[in-house]
Amino acid sequence: MAPVRTTGAVVAAISVTVALLSLFLYKSKPSSKKLPSKKNPRNGLLGAIGNTPLIRINSLSEATGCEILGKCEFLNPGGSVKDRVAVKIIEEALESGDLAPGGVVTEGSVGSTAISLATVAPAYGCKCHVVIPDDVAIEKSQILEALGATVERVRPVSITHRDHFVNVAKRRASEANEFALKHRKDDANQRGVANGTTEKTNGFQYDEEKQSLFSRNCTGGYFADQFENLANFRAHYEATGPEIWEQTGGNVDVFVAGAGTGGTLAGVSKFLQERNSNIKCFLIDPPGSGLFNKVTRGVMYTREEAEGQRLKNPFDTITEGIGINRITKNFMMAKLDGAFRGTDKEAVEMSRFLMKNDGLFLGSSSAMNCVGAVRAAQSIGPGHTIVTILCDSGMRHLSKFFSADYLSQYGLTPSASGIEFLGVG
């Protein structure tokens, strides 16, 4: 019987050893619930801005023979590339003392920058006042109001007119400063009366209905000035450009994008070309904009146009957010090798093609950027890596760019089955 007992003991010992080993291996496995260090939660809303994915746009890559990559800026919390700019503008203004917590940030915008400012301003204890043209898609105003911003819609006029939306926004900042100063003086006088040391002399009394533009506790105003404020350029030079460089491992041949303020195009192009002077950077310009002529010919208009024959509004493009007829301080920082023209019809067709083939629901400027990416691919040939910006989604373009009735009025109803509208396929 001894051998049997010995065998039983051995079996028991082996069983215990296997059990302990299994337990050890189980404990040694990393828990699936534990987040890797790189996946730790970001710090609030502001921490979620930037570091957006760079994706391969499969349909365009396969059609052109180039690797066409899109930076998904529509995944920022405020839904666009302008979140980066809003943060940079407000942070620099707070650091300089030009803006104080409790102040109101004013801006003239066709939508995206305004929405970004309204999104991030509360994180800094500030409010937002926006002036936009009244022909901009109505959903942009609705989003701004839902975000708590004060919205003024004004008629489109030349930038030289005092009531151009940018000029009105600048004026509102000055008015907010005057308003805050008047209240500070009034409060000081009221304290003096309470202490029996002075009398109220200005006779000012707060009327909420008359002073509805600014809250009673407004500490002043700050004009964001996205077109001329170089914080716009710095946002992309310090973040967007480096992200693209890192995400491509430096393997990028071309960057192409449209320009409104010019900040994205300037910041990214300057950063990339400083890293590798062989990287080509191009502008894609919509109808009605003079930037294409400026880049390709060195002048904003042709000689005939400069002699006064140019109409005030030669073309009312439906591509919102890009295209301009002046050179901004931000655009002046761009390092460009050339430019392409795009049309409204191409942008419309591109947006529908990408939605059908890639599931990408993009806004008008994003679609135009993709037109630019294909133009670049046609220009330099297959085998290259091309990066562009997917600025925002189609969510804020429903009443115009994605409205069948609106497009039909201008003969822009999409009809292409592929991208033959660009001479491909």
Automatic annotation (TrEMBL):
<keyword id="KW-0812">Transmembrane</keyword>
<keyword id="KW-1133">Transmembrane helix</keyword>
<dbReference type="Pfam" id="PF00291">
    <property type="entry name" value="PALP"/>
</dbReference>
<keyword id="KW-0663">Pyridoxal phosphate</keyword>
<dbReference type="InterPro" id="IPR036052">
    <property type="entry name" value="TrpB-like_PALP_sf"/>
</dbReference>
<protein>
    <recommendedName>
        <fullName>cysteine synthase</fullName>
        <ecNumber>2.5.1.47</ecNumber>
    </recommendedName>
</protein>
<dbReference type="GO" id="GO:0006535">
    <property type="term" value="P:cysteine biosynthetic process from serine"/>
</dbReference>
<dbReference type="InterPro" id="IPR001926">
    <property type="entry name" value="TrpB-like_PALP"/>
</dbReference>
<keyword id="KW-0808">Transferase</keyword>
<dbReference type="GO" id="GO:0004124">
    <property type="term" value="F:cysteine synthase activity"/>
</dbReference>
<dbReference type="InterPro" id="IPR050214">
    <property type="entry name" value="Cys_Synth/Cystath_Beta-Synth"/>
</dbReference>
<feature type="transmembrane region" description="Helical">
    <location>
        <begin position="6"/>
        <end position="26"/>
    </location>
</feature>
<feature type="domain" description="Tryptophan synthase beta chain-like PALP">
    <location>
        <begin position="47"/>
        <end position="392"/>
    </location>
</feature>
<dbReference type="InterPro" id="IPR001216">
    <property type="entry name" value="P-phosphate_BS"/>
</dbReference>
<keyword id="KW-0472">Membrane</keyword>
<comment type="similarity">
    <text>Belongs to the cysteine synthase/cystathionine beta-synthase family.</text>
</comment>
